[in-house]
Amino acid sequence: MTGATLWLDGTVFTGRRYVEALLVDDGTVVAAGDRASVVGQAPTGTERRSLAGALVVPGLVDAHLHVAELARSWEGLDLAGAPSLASLLDRVAAWGASHPAGPLVGRGLDPERFPDRRWPTSADLDRLDGDRPIVLVHASGHAAVVNSEALRSSGLASGSVPVRPEFVGRFPDGAPNGVLYEEALGAVDRLRSAGAPVTPDALARTLARLPDLGIVAVGAMSLTLEEWRGLRDLAGERRVPLTVRGYVRLALLDGVVPAELGREGDQVRLAGVKAFLDGAFGPRTAALETTYADDPTTAGQEVGADRELGDALDRAAERGLAPALHAIGDRAVARAARLLTGRFRAGGPPPRIEHASLTPPSGLRSLEASRATLVVQPGFVWSDAWLGARLGAARARWAYAFRTLRDRGLHLAGSSDAPYDAPDPWRGVRATVARRDPSGASANPDPREALPPEEALALYSSEGWAALGEEGGTLEPGSRADLLVLAAPTLAAALGLAEHPVRETWIAGRRVFPRSDAGATV
């Protein structure tokens, strides 16, 4: 008997070409090509697997998600999809009744789904429960609504916490109305954590679900030191089924012990540091060059000072850690490009701009000079269907402009930003190919920005690995055998399915989804 497996009777897309057969041995692709030549290389005892007409593709990478927040979202109060304020408040009340102790914390607030788009205030939440803190986090993660008790216990009501005035919403009389933005969220971090603690078991359960979607590696963003060490401990206990590359919050860099960085080849390893330059489109905190079309009183907010950011990024580079700068609005993207220019280091993880959502032609030259990888979220093309009204149609034309960016030679990698959008990578692939969702909605429906299926898949495979600073994402000989068996004969057919198309997920030649295994050996 050998550890070899032969894949036959279907089609294999290696990430570069289509072939008839694939041979895997000891977790590595040995051969990929026509049936006769691949079968001829199979040793005696090779296990044969009939694809029965199905398609095999490389495993997928989510280059930017938030593992701890995803665990909180999956195991806590999920507000996503609430169609009205009344429906949202009903969910909060029901959860509070069944979870009577501690702060009441929910995630996924999205007033853009409400008929009147009205944000709740502390007055709405006080009617639910005035005795315990309530914190409802916006779908973007860049805003929240809290009740009066949360304002009081956080120090925001008394003004004892130093927060810039523009980050705290106000009633007409000047009193805080419970709506918090950006840096003001730090005042309620303790409440958010206490209301939804993340245990090692919760992290393990979350990681275990990702291969079901075809995900074989992730970039875990904005990690606290506790979360990072928890992931390392889980890997030591063999409870991490996929590759994890961590990016800790830049402010925590000096707390990282050099021995914790990890070694080449480790399943869980630190790759970089994450910093914010602006906010998000939803709460109008993404930094724009000109004011918002639907609110001419603001052009968003910038976060941090360039000199301090640059000094911290230099300290990170001395430890071999790459910068990952959150920048959504065009003003923030231009600023990120300036900060990253000259910070590219050959042989390590690349500098990254997270999101790079609004990229008009005027900013492309500076992006090229930065040599940064743009880690985009194609699912936002569908999720942000309201963006045209927020930015104006002419400006929204340059939101999520994937074809334009690729044609300029810029490196793109796909991701979800989960839980701030759905973690299903197939939704992102579909949105890359078909700019409009099944109902016809889109943040930027321009068909010229679409990519063909194979290029869309590459954003989540070879380009995803490159964003983590590693080679991978193909099924060519010598590659690690991370592969998916899809429930369709072609990639186009797979993208046409109502659900995600993954029938099996294999990591390093071992099947991890479904978790039972059987095969015929010859």
Please provide a written account of the structure.
The protein is α/β, with parallel strands linked by helices. The chain has 3 domains: 99 residues, Urease, subunit C, domain 1; 119 residues, Diaminopimelate Epimerase, Chain A, domain 1 (Roll), CATH 3.10.310; 196 residues, Metal-dependent hydrolases (TIM Barrel, Alpha-Beta Barrel), CATH 3.20.20.140. 28% of the residues lie in helices and 23% in strands. It is built from 19 helices and 25 strands. An 8-stranded parallel sheet has the order 8-15-16-17-18-19-20-21. The chain has a 6-stranded mixed sheet with strand order 3-2-7-22-23-24, with no helix packed on it. It has a 6-stranded mixed sheet with strand order 9-10-11-12-14-13, with helices on both faces.
Quick summary:
With about 525 residues, this protein is α/β, with parallel strands linked by helices.
